[in-house]
Each structure stands twice: as structure tokens, then as C-alpha cells.
Amino acid sequence: MIICAGESLIDMVSYATENGEVQYTPHVGGSILNSAIALGRLGADAYYCGAVSNDTFGGLIEDCIRESRVQEDFIFKTNRPTTLAYSDISDDGIAQYRFVDGHSAGRLIDENSLKPFVNKIKNTKALLVGGISLQAEPCGKSWQWLVEQVAGGCVIYFDANIRPDFIKDKDKYLKRFERLTGIADIVKISEEDYSYLYGEQDFEKVTIEWLEKGIKLIVLTLGEKGAKVIFDGGKEISVGIEAVKVIDTIAAGDSFNAGLLFDLDKQNMLDQEKLASIDTSTLKKALTFANQVASFTVTQKGANPPWLHQIK
């Protein structure tokens, strides 16, 4: 059982009409939900944990969850509205976001909503957290509380996935980030994420500190260059990706997360002790698959990760 805990939302993805006007179409999204959807489509025992609105957009989210074979045991319903993310796509497929998130279903999650799930989550194989659900308040405090409650009981995968507009107090968030890197087993961060958090600080020095805290895998995503992983006291492995025609980059990193977790699980590696002693060939296989899943997703419009049969 792999649980993805955090935000769900609707991406309003831009497109140009024949007469040049910009219009938006709704696509189910949210970093954490995207990963759950990808895991479900790959055939994993996937669960989504989070708030889903009773509004029309929440209905779209529920339909997608069910169609993608994601389990709903950790979902709680609310009358608060669904978060909307207006995604403007540049000519090279890069998405720029504007969020409508005030008093939303995801934003106002509290600890009491999460308490009933703690024991079951603690006994799962892996928990994926990150994204805006750990950056916005008051939900960030609640999701951090959940991670702290289950630490040591399951593999924790933390994806930084920084959205600066949600971080109102950078120093406060950095303290949370440092706390989570002291708990997590796998941390994924992009070059942009690292630059926002640490500026010109030496990446190698910082990652050594993370490894000393107990992180087993540090995943640095490199966009079209693929990904690099630092592990086992400072060893490194890089895996590139094949060139594809990019429609947009929405959910690329989320799909990567799902692919990596799925393949590690397939290789029976979702275990803290096994991750601590993972070998290069096992890791390369998992990274290659994760890149394949992400590469498919960027050839689609919006967050639309592949089914297993669509991966070559």
C-alpha cells in the first residue's frame, strides 16, 4: 500500500483558440493527487489521502480517482471549494501557475481530520508528501504533524516541489523543510527548488548533511537531462531521458515520483533498511522507469500520466 497525502485541485490549462483568444479547460491535478493517479494507473496499490470538495470540481476529482483505480479510504469530504490553478503554458511547454486557494478544501485541513488515519498510514509501505500542502498554512502545519506521527513506521518520500507564492515566511518554511529532511527516507528536489531554498550554498555539502541525518536517497531532477541520485554516503548515479515532443510539463515531476515508487516496490525495495543498502543496478532500473513515466506525461495536455501498458 502506497499512500499519497496532500493536495488535490483543478488545473485550468490555457490554450489558444483559432482566433487567438486564450481559454482554459479543467484538468484534475494537484502534485500529490497526480502521483496517486499515476500509481493507480501503473497498477500499484495506491491510496489518496486528502480533502475533496462536494462542489462540481470535487466531483471531477472523485471520478478521476475511481477511473484511475486509486483507493479512497483516506479521503474526507467537505463543503469548502476546490483549489483552482490557472496554468499558462509557454511555447516550450513550461507551465506558469496562478492559484485560487482561499478557504479551500485543502487549505483548511486540520490535525483532527488526519488523526483517524495515523495508525493505518504508519503501517503502510510508503507515504508520499510534499508540494503546496506543506507550504501553505494552516494545512502545512497539519501535514507536518502527520509526517511526524508516522515517522519510523513506513518509508517517507518528501517531494519539495516549491511554489514560492504559497510560502509567506521563507525562514519558517525552511525550518519545516529541515525538519522533514530529518525524518524522510527519500527526498526529491529540483535545481530550482534548491536555488530558492539555499541560494549559492554548496549542494554537495548540504546533501552530505542530509545523508548524515538518515536520508537514504536524494533525488535531484534535472529537467530534460533526467535525474541524479545521491545515496550510500555520497555515491552518485545519473540517468538521462530520451527526447520527446513536449506538450506541457504539468505533472512531470509527480509522474516521476510515482514511477520511482512503483519500480522500487516492484523490486521489493520499499523498506528503510533495504533502501539504506540499495545497489546501483537496482537504483538505475527504478530511475529509468521513473523517467519513462515522466516522459510520457509531458507528451499529454495537463496532468495525464500513463497506464502501465503505455510505457514502452
Short description:
The protein is of the alpha/beta class. It contains eleven helices and 13 strands.
Give the tags.
UDP-N-acetylmuramoyl-L-alanine:D-glutamate ligase, nine-stranded mixed β-sheet, four-stranded mixed β-sheet, 37% helix, alpha/beta, 312 residues, 13 strands, 11 helices
Descriptive report:
The chain has 312 residues and is of the alpha/beta class. It is built from eleven helices and 13 strands. The strands form two sheets. A nine-stranded mixed β-sheet has the order 5-4-1-8-9-10-11-12-13, with helices on both faces. α1 (31-42) crosses α9. It is globular and about 55 Å long.
Total beta strand runs: 13
Termini gap: 25 Å
**What is the radius of gyration computed over CA atoms, rounded to a whole number of angstroms?**
18 Å
CATH homologous group name: Ribokinase
Task: Tell me the name of the CATH class.
Answer: Alpha Beta
Strand order of the main beta sheet, please?
Answer: 5-4-1-8-9-10-11-12-13
Number of helices in the DSSP assignment: 11
Second rung of CATH, namely the architecture: 3-Layer(aba) Sandwich
β content, as a range?
Answer: 25-35%
Give the overall pLDDT as a whole number.
Answer: 92
**Classification by helices and strands:** alpha/beta
Largest sheet: 9 strands, mixed
- At the fold tier of CATH, the topology name is UDP-N-acetylmuramoyl-L-alanine:D-glutamate ligase
Question: What's the number of structural domains?
Answer: 1
Series of secondary-structure elements, N-terminal to C-terminal: EEEHEHEEEHHEHEHEHHEEEHHH
Helix content: 25-40%
Q: Judging from the principal axes of the Cα atoms, what is the shape?
A: globular
Low-confidence stretches: none
